[in-house]
């Protein structure tokens, strides 16, 4: 079936309900939901982690579906307004201008995309690693953000987990930073993507011997070593690529629209 342009309002109404963007607690600056509208119809879905200038400019350079009706919906995890309520000047002006010039709409989902059972960063990464017997843990604004699971038979050590994590995220093993605070042989792993180094002890208290996240502060080395838990830092950016990809694929199937992922790694 040939893809047809879809009303923006139909997609955003669906996303608001599917992701529960009004119900899931988050930082005020996240501004989950539609952040920039367009003229009204969408011909393709583009997923990216950040609403950066490179991402927005890449909408034009990487348009594989260029037609008069191919206005994109850019779906991101980190939106435009993390620096707060500021004038539309400087880089904010440049980003907005580039979106408007391309008739591109922008939709952002932060914590709602981390926790969603089907397309969320944490559940998707946990399932991709083969973890089973999944359960929730942790506390973020009253929400259990983390996913814990039992390792598959093929993963018995923290080094094997690091290798599997690198493969899953398209990294090299040297990209994974291991803090070996727990046992070499592992069984129960907690996952919170992004910058969740502060949740190390929450994972330990939930019965995990190993914790996967993107990054953490320097003192988290001692949290892990003295807390008796292994920690794998795989990068804030890399760990949060999985959710936007899963969400875009879901929307593509639901609305019969082409989708693509635009990769702009930060190295962090």
Walk me through the structure:
This protein is of the alpha/beta class and 268 residues long. The chain folds into 2 domains: 6-113, NIF3 (NGG1p interacting factor 3)-like (Udp-n-acetylmuramoylalanyl-d-glutamate--2,6- Diaminopimelate Ligase, Chain: A, domain 1, 3-Layer(aba) Sandwich), CATH 3.40.1390.30; 116-239, Udp-n-acetylmuramoylalanyl-d-glutamate--2,6- Diaminopimelate Ligase, Chain: A, domain 1 (3-Layer(aba) Sandwich). It is built from 10 helices and 13 strands. The protein has a 6-stranded mixed β-sheet. Strands 2-6-5-4-13 form a 5-stranded mixed β-sheet, with helices on both faces. It has a two-stranded antiparallel sheet with strand order 1-3. Strand 5, helix 3 (90-101) and strand 6 (105-108) form a beta-alpha-beta unit. Helix 5 (121-128) crosses helix 10. The N and C termini lie far apart (40 Å).
Q: What's the number of helices?
A: 10
**Structure classification:** alpha/beta
CATH topology of the largest domain: Udp-n-acetylmuramoylalanyl-d-glutamate--2,6- Diaminopimelate Ligase, Chain: A, domain 1
CATH class of the largest domain: Alpha Beta
Q: Give the strand line-up of the largest sheet.
A: 7-8-10-11-12-9
Q: Please give the number of β-strands.
A: 13
Q: What is the terminal separation in angstroms? A: 40 Å
Radius of gyration: 19 Å
Give the strand content.
15-25%
Helix content: 25-40%
**Low-confidence spans: pLDDT under 50, at least 5 residues?**
none
Number of discrete domains: 2
Shape: elongated
Second CATH tier, the architecture of the largest domain: 3-Layer(aba) Sandwich
Biggest sheet statistics? 6 strands, mixed
